Amino acid sequence: MRHSSRLERAETLVEAERRLATGQTLRQVSADFGIARSTLQDWHQAKEAQLAAALPADLAAFVATPDGVGWLHRIVLAAHFAITLRGGAGVRVVCEFLELSGLSAVVGASYGSQQALNAAMETAVVDLAKEQRTALAEGMAPRRITALEDETFHPATCLVSLDPVSGFILLEQYAKNRSADTWTEALRAALDGLKVEVIQGTSDQAKALRRPIEQDLQAHQSPDLFHGQHEVAKATSLHLARQVKQAEARVAAAEAQLNAERVAEQAYQDQRPHPPGRPPAFGQRIQTALTEWAEAQVEHEQAQARQVEARAMIRELGERYHPYELQQGHVQSVEGVAARFEDVWTRLQRLAEAADLPARARERLAKAQRLTIQFLATLTFFFATLYSRIEMLNLPPDIEQAVITQLIPALYIMRVAKRRADADSRHRLRTLGAHLLEPLRQPDHPLQRLAAEERRCIEQAAQDCADLFQRSSSAVEGRNGQLDRSHHGHHRLSNCPLTTSRFVWPDGVG
To answer: Among 208, 355, 446, 494, which one is least packed by beta carbons within 10 Å?
Structure first.
């Protein structure tokens, strides 16, 4: 026998009470509804108990109505959606919310009841996503996209891929392993039915991530800039920080020795009468200590300078790796970027020699430097694809030149500005982008004399070109972090291996 839902009971009670108020008997009402009189009486008693619960009278009366039950359903579903799906917390946090809000007086707040609801909601979300994916894919225009790829583990291997421009999750599934064949199979299944063509992939340099893009999908593989910078940071940061700390210790020791010599001299001068014999050579001792302190200070300053320089060069790698320079918005030639990269690597090598970095650190620098070829290949791919796309528009030479040298650089710089952390940099880049766009917006510019639909097509092509250069897989890394947090909120602690003989609670705890 099917159990009536809370909403059905509330609707039945409202109608039953209306009929009883007109003079109908309980027997007649229960017969009309096909419900036993005892059941109807139990529902009425439950409503009276709810009205007497720890809620304001008006609110308690409202939540006993069909509209009130619907409102409660909405509140609980919103809590599950915001706390578990969006916030990454677990069902127990929802239970705590119901308890603290007082809704537990009229809503079951046990873990079992809320966990069942949460599981049903997750299933409904997945089913809706499949339906929407199919429906939206039918009407979408063909697109050429970049696929960001990475894996996460909680605890099984989860393959994740998304489009960095739209944020659309192409792939998110558990797999038996993370081999190249598994990635290729998963990507092809994820792209099935979508009117998209993957022309580029961005990820770290793991072979299992590169092969599906380069060989199986015949697309360009763009290296992740962060992993190159991270190699440089790992090669330099720890060793340079250690040298700064050691230099600080030597400065402190030299300063203590200098002060000790000065104190000894003053003590000798204050002593009356002086001991017999020649006085100690305080001047020579102080001069020696002063020389050692000055040398330690110079060494400390040099160590700090090397640390600051290394950090600046790591940032410089990121500043150099753009198709347009970020000061004037000019197009950067691949050769020019190569020369600037080479300058950074040369200075890093000199720093490694000056700091006497160990062999392992220099190997990391060499590993990062080898990415330069792929960085330059990505710039070459970007410009080749851009020129091909713009040529397809068959624009007049003056408009084509404006699109390539002004419109696309401005749109790209605007996108870079959105990702900047500091407000001053964002403002400067937005100002630069607006400055590049201003001539194109003038009524006498050839671009403005085109038909509105033609201008729209040109701007859309320019936006697609500006979105093409993808040098980071941070979006998929962020998604992995969200998935890890969500999994952490849903699982319980594993069995603790500690025993009472090995672990003792602090006094007053436990």
So the answer is: 494
